[in-house]
Specification:
It contains 4 helices and 5 strands. It is an alpha/beta fold. The strands form 2 sheets. The protein has a 3-stranded parallel beta sheet with strand order 1-3-5. Strands 2-4 form a two-stranded parallel ribbon.
Length: 102
């Protein structure tokens, strides 16, 4: 099992870097943890990259989990309707509003 730390800023301008950061882990066997503990800004494009990554790993039989998920990250996932796709659960804190979520 290994862990990949996500950047603090997952704005649209960072999606190419995010894709490159995740690419080496796409076919990695076993569980992969994505640490979202520093994420303070999320754009829809970054969520799309993460959803595609998690789905591709799932289809290959590899588990991907998120650790230390910030309220910002979880709320953005909720607003975009991808909590389940990312394997996250809603919490009472996800009722907060998020700037730049979509």
């Amino acid at each position: 099992m290994s862990t990949v730390a996500l950047s603090q800023d997952l704005g649209i301008e960072s999606t190419s870097d995010l894709k490159q950061q995740l690419a080496p882990h796409l076919a990695q066997a076993g569980e992969l943890r994505l640490d979202a503990g520093q994420v303070s800004r999320v754009h829809t494009a970054a969520m799309q990259v993460l959803c595609a990554f998690v789905l591709a790993r799932r289809q290959a039989g590899h588990n991907t989990v998120f650790d230390n998920v910030t309220d910002t990250f979880r709320d953005a996932a909720r607003l975009l309707g991808v909590l389940q796709a990312l394997g996250l659960e809603a919490t009472p804190d996800t009722l907060k509003s998020v700037e730049n979520a979509a």
